């Protein structure tokens, strides 16, 4: 397993979100992390409906209440904890999860070696 540092945990408000672009051995990876209720959840930044990024403005992945992930293209709403689309054209589909690790106030992406 490879760890890639994303940010300090204090850099993400609760609730809050932030996008990241990494260059991995397997190629580029665009992802975002949501911090809510003291938990961190990471997802590929790609809508299951069209494959478009979920954010139009940098780091804006949540609805106004901070309760759901929202796709800026379609307005689809996704559950923060499991990534399932609750409403929108991709209803029932889900975001692609990624593994994150919180350690000593730092947030890391866990990537299995290819």
Short description:
The protein is built from no helices and nine strands.
Number of β-strand runs: 9
Tell me, what's the shape?
Answer: globular
The proportion of strand residues reads over 45%
Rg result: 13 Å
SSE series: EEEEEEEEE
Largest sheet: 6 strands, antiparallel
Keywords for this entry:
114 residues, mainly beta, six-stranded antiparallel β-sheet, 0% helix
Task: Provide a descriptive summary of the structure in words.
Helix content is 0%, strand content 47%. By secondary structure, the chain is mostly beta strands. The strands form two sheets. It has a six-stranded antiparallel sheet with strand order 1-9-8-4-3-2, with no helix packed on it. Strands 5-6-7 form a three-stranded antiparallel sheet, with no helix packed on it. A hairpin with a 2-residue loop joins strand 3 (27-36) and strand 4 (39-44). The chain is globular, with a radius of gyration of 13 Å. 25% of the residues are buried. The model has no long low-confidence stretch (mean pLDDT 94).
């Amino acid at each position: 397993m490879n760890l890639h540092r994303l940010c300090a945990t204090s850099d993400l408000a609760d609730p809050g979100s932030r996008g990241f672009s990494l260059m991995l051995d397997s190629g580029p990876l665009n992802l975002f992390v949501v911090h809510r209720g003291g938990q961190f959840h990471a997802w590929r930044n790609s809508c299951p409906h069209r494959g478009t990024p979920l954010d139009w403005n940098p780091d804006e992945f949540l609805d106004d209440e901070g309760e759901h992930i929202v796709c800026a293209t379609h307005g689809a709403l996704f559950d923060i904890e499991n990534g399932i689309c609750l409403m929108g054209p991709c209803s029932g589909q889900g975001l692609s999860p990624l593994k994150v690790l919180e350690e000593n106030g730092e947030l890391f992406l866990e990537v299995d070696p290819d």
